[in-house]
Design a protein that fits this description.
Blueprint: E1 6-11, H1 15-25, E2 31-37, H2 40-47, E3 54-57, H3 66-76, E4 81-86, H4 91-99, E5 104-107, H5 111-123, E6 128-129, H6 131-153, H7 156-166, H8 171-178, H9 182-196, H10 201-210
Parallel strand pairs: 1-2, 1-3, 3-4, 4-5, 5-6
Helix pairs in contact: 2-3, 7-9, 7-10, 8-9
């Protein structure tokens, strides 16, 4: 754990948000805001030479979005820590940010209480998530585990049908390829949706891709 101040750069296109974040951080021991930017291009240009420890980054920005900035900042400065500060709480946003290298994910409505702790956490090689984000991650993990268990309950024929659905085949095409009736295909599709608790072909396709069902049968 370092005793030097965490040098922080803010990236958010809303001037009032940046001012509010600065107000939270001003005077906090161990934290120093060294720069702020309203767009990603300017921030990335400055990061090449600017000494910075923690990037506090919004995801919704004009031009380059936060995900692109996150990826490019990581490539530009591999040692930088990135704390996402956003209004988006959906698991899809959280998962994508984490996959692209975010060290923390903080919702703006909890910034007043948690921002300082979050910056110290990511600076000290720890992760930090807002309580709501933690709950969402836990629910997503439980749902994925439940779906994985459901996958084990599928029959060989149901897996065959699921694979063909994910390949984009129509009911008639699946029936012809598997040499079964179209109504049988429809029954299997309904059973798949019920067992996996997925209510659309798009969700079935995403599930099949994630579980690797499009590999060699």
């Amino acid at each position: 754990m370092t005793t030097e101040d965490a040098r922080v750069v803010l990236i958010d296109d809303h001037t009032l948000v940046r001012a509010g974040v600065r107000r939270i951080l001003e005077g906090q021991p161990g934290i120093r805001v060294v720069a702020e930017f309203g767009d990603g291009e300017a921030a990335l240009a400055a990061l090449a030479d600017m000494p910075v420890d923690v990037l506090v980054l919004d995801l919704t920005l004009p031009g380059l979005d936060g995900f692109e900035i996150l990826t490019r900042a990581r490539a530009l400065r591999p040692g930088i820590k990135v704390l996402v500060l956003t209004m988006h709480a959906s698991p899809e946003y959280v998962a994508r940010a984490i996959e692209q290298g975010a060290d923390g994910y903080l919702l703006k409505d909890s910034a007043v209480h948690d921002l300082v702790a979050a910056i110290h956490a990511v600076r000290d090689e720890r992760v930090f998530y807002s309580p709501e984000v933690q709950r969402g991650l836990g629910e997503a993990l439980r749902a994925r585990r439940a779906q994985s268990r459901a996958l084990d309950q599928l029959t060989a024929r149901e897996r065959d049908v699921l694979r063909q659905i994910a390949l984009g085949l129509s009911t008639k095409e699946i029936a012809a390829r598997l040499e079964i009736g179209a109504r049988t295909v429809e029954t299997h599709r309904a059973n798949l949706m019920r067992k996996l608790d997925l209510r659309s072909v798009a969700l079935l396709t995403r599930f099949a891709l994630r579980e690797g069902l499009l590999g060699p049968p």
